[in-house]
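Structure ticket #2291
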Amino acid sequence: MNKQLLSATGLILAIILFVSFNIVVNGNFKSARVDLTEDNLYTLSDGTVNILKSMKEPISLRFYYTEKAAQALPSLKSYAQRVQELLLEYQRASNGKIRLFVMNPEPFSSDEQRADQYGLQSVPIDGESDPLYFGLAGTNEVDGVETIPFFQPEKEDTLEYDLTKLIYKLSNNNRKTVGVISSLEVDGEQYDPLKGEVASADGAKPWAMMAELRQMFNVSMLPTDVRRIPSSMDALVVIHPKELSESTLYAIDQYVLAGGKLITFVDPYAEVDKPKKDPDNPMSAMLAPRSSNMDELFEAWGFKRSNTDVVADRKTATKVDFGAKTDYQPIDYVLWQKLTKGNFNKDERITSALRQLNVATPGRFEILDGHTTKITPLFSSSNEAMLVDKRVVQFRNDPVALLTKYQPGTISYPMAIRAQGEVKTAFPDGAKTVSGELKKMPGHLDKAKSDIDVIAIADVDMLDDRFWVETQDFYGKQLAFNTSNNIDFLINAIEDMTGSEGLISIRSRAGFSRPFYKVIELQRDAEKRFRTKERELQNKLKETQQRIARMQVQRSGSGQQILSPEQQKEIAEFRLTANKTQQQLRDVQANLRKDIDKLDAQLKFFNIGLVPILVGLLAVFTGWMRIRKRNKARSQQ
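Resolution: structure written out below.
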């Protein structure tokens, strides 16, 4: 009886202990987790923690989430929990500077009205009468408001950056001022900065990069014929300085010598520069120059950009479908490159955390003998790049021919560099006025007051929207999704040069794609052989067609074409050759598939089969050891 009572009591105590343990764990360790991702994407980065600790004024965050409407969407519900847990981590790490409010906006309530006033996005859900709110509104003590209209699950890998950027913008009242000079309509045609749009629907739209810059800095557009760069500019960004006047280059020279920070994008062949077509002269657009340079300034600073060639790179090539040119199949376009970690300078803060940059028909820089500056490459091509005459791209760009004739080199070409050090002016006598007279501006400097700091990039196209951002319509609103770190590179550069800690350490933290490099290498090798054979076949086809065309065609009275025995023999030989080549192509593709399938089987074995096999072998070994030990004990008895 006593044993039964003790057993019942023990069972009851065990149940109470189990329930209590779950309550304590759920209440105190709700957001605890082990982060096993490669870059600790689920742990607050040091940069975020530093920004939270440096906050001087309190910030209020209002997280709007319609829990009832999200019940039918398990994945979204799970993501909402992730967002809320991360917001709680921000609150804990802020030492009381962040006040978090979780709002569940009911229909026709004051919370729903306030969410609408903040501009948060309401999304209708099938089968639910209430719309879904899933956004964040942040406010500071001076009526500043920043929002995330809707947390897109597709942007989960940038969640920390988006949250930290919102907090940084609310807590940082010292915005740097950035001037922009460009021969391209980067700010749109007749852009109205107050409305954030162009005056005419038919005008050029602002580039997405301008919106990103305005989120972080005070941006001022300067005319291309500016005579003096205001000293209030913390940094100057020059984009495609095509045919700038001597006086404008002189103004930039003096700004840099006075301590101004310069970031300039130049290009041997800017694809984004679309010359206007002349109906009376169709060749004018093709012949129009599309390059930009700052020769005089670069040479004074110890480097130059080559004017004759562009950099092609098979190792970093992007796959592009050129339609009929490539039989509607994507091929490696060696002039468009996807640069990754191996191309970046890991010792520079600007590029150390970058994952991917997309460039198009980029140029290269050469360091001049006798330079007085320290030249540091920021990103470069691979060591298998080759140089292509830019006239090939301008007049007869053939992506298949570029790929077929590609010859890997052994040199890595710098595409972006940073120059720092003492320099002299490139215009010791000043610049020419409209009348042709040389004239110095007031306060002319013959040499730099201190070490200059200049970053030059040999590609303009990397700032074009299509190379770094995609937009999607989301219930009437345009949402942007970054596909590379192109804009991150520019903002990092501005922050680093102007001494802002900013968001450099977390801006590039999230990854984009994680490719299977071995599979890509196998595909590239097989495709190279495939394209070479394909080119040979096309050349044979063209040559045979030309020979047949030169033969005398005999026709009967009925008008039907009669082939001579010579023609029939030639066509038969060609068809035989074509069939053999096609078979070779199929063999190449079959071998490619075979190699990839073999690698796939190996990966599946190691990731899926190996662990159970090892566990099974361990169990068998353990059982055998126990039986052996038991038999040994029995024999001793």
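Closing remark: The CA atoms of residues 562 and 568 lie 10 Å apart.
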